[in-house]
Structures are given as C-alpha cells and as structure tokens.
Amino acid sequence: MGKKMDHASATGNTVGTVGSVSAGWDHLGKRGDGPGRNLLEVRGLKVSYGGIEAVRDISFDVPEHEIVTLIGANGAGKSSTLRSIVALEKPAAGSIRFDSNELIGMGTEQIVKNGITLVPEGRRVFVNLSVYENLRMGAYLRNDDLESDLNWVYSLFPRLKERSWQAAGTLSGGEQQMLAIARALMSRPKMIMMDEPSLGLAPIIVQEVFDIIREINKMGMTILLVEQNANMALKAADMGYVMETGQITLSGAGKDLAENPVVKEAYLGKARK
Fold this sequence. Notes:
Blueprint: E1 38-49, E2 52-63, E3 67-71, H1 78-85, E4 93-98, E5 101-102, H2 108-114, E6 116-119, H3 131-138, H4 147-156, H5 158-162, H6 173-185, E7 191-195, H7 203-218, E8 222-226, H8 230-236, E9 239-244, E10 247-253, H9 254-258, H10 261-267
Parallel strand pairs: 3-8, 3-9, 6-7, 7-8
Antiparallel strand pairs: 1-2, 1-4, 4-5, 9-10
Helix pairs in contact: 3-6
C-alpha cells in the first residue's frame, strides 16, 4: 500500500487551488503541449442486463488532457458506460482501448494499474475510516512513497487536511465528494472518470466541485465526466456526447452543444424560440 509516512508531514496550502504541481504528476504533461492523442477509444460498445440493452453500440473518444462529458437523462446508459470501462460491468460486445491497450478481458485491478480510476455515483467513501485512511485506500495498488501526492491533494482540498483524522461518515456531502475525488487521484491515474459528481450537492458546492475539476484538468489530467447537470458539464467540457436510451444521439464541442436548440430544450430547461 505504499511506504508508511508520518502523517504530520503531509502539509498543504490553506487555499482551495493548486499553486504548483508536484514532481510526481509531471508524467501527465499539460494542456497546451499540443494536440492530444486519443487516450481512450470506445468502439461498438454494448452492455446488457438480461434481455435489456443499457448501452447500444456506442463509439466515442477521449483525447488526452481534455474533459469529455456524457450527458443525458436517468437510464440513458451513462453510468453503465463508465462501469464497463473499468470492468465493473461486462460488455456484451465492443472494444475499449486505453493508452493503446485493449481493456476488454482485463480485471478492474489491472485497469486501475493501467491508469484509469472511477469516482462512483454517490461518493461511496469508507464511512468508518478517517479521511487520511480513505486517501491511503485510494493508493492501495501503489508501493511507492505517497507523501508528495498527499501534500498535493491536501493543497487541492484544504478542508480534508483540516479533517484528516475525522471519520469520513461525519463529513458533509460536499466534503465527502471532495474526498471521493481526492481518493481517486491517489492512485496517480492518467484518466479519472467521475459519475454524477454534483449529485445532491448545494449549488455553491457544485461550483466548487467544478472548479476543482477544471484545476485538475489544467494539470494535464484527462477527465471523462458523467453528469445530469448539463449546463455545468458542457461549460467545463472540451467535447460532449448526448446519450438517450443507450445510444449517442448528438456530439460536438461542449460550447457548441450548449447552444444546440435540442440540447437547450431537453437538458438546459430553455424552450426553443
């Protein structure tokens, strides 16, 4: 699980933004280093539950260093898509390639080792463990020193540092969401997937979560985001895909989809003129 460290040495800034990137994250590169290759390529993906097709022959790409969002109503197949990528659901057909490696047939642990991590819907923190212990659980597949990454997540989420020995179950919903994101980052992924990170949060906390998403992305982190809050998701995303009943029905740049009349009416609560 990594080298045991003196927790008192894991000190961070007292502000909610990252002042500098720890050396351990230099491997990601940065936005602006040039056009990104496709880090994730999904082709012909199908996911079924019994005789019901939850995901119906979808294909999409996630370029390196970009934010890509899947938006759609409940039951559209968004979460099933994420779960299939990390082998929590077995695809009925299709190909999922990440960093040039085929993921179909791999187990979840091997996929995490390859560089993908998932922040699940509903946060799913370990409620009886402390904040610090939750963060270390995120790094359970690592066997290197965790100190620099703990410093980094504490600087990104200063409230977690303040509550480092507090039981995760006693945190507010917003703090638990921050912990879920921070825990996922502790695996040192190349791409982080987030399933409904704004679910159940107050508007001011939703804004804070999306600020963090943008901050992580500026560091070079590739992000695949599933979100019902289409307005916030499309504002943050480089690229977006609209899913309906298991299929992708629209795609385009996030800012273009936000201006699409169909998207406005269906997902942004704005009637067509």
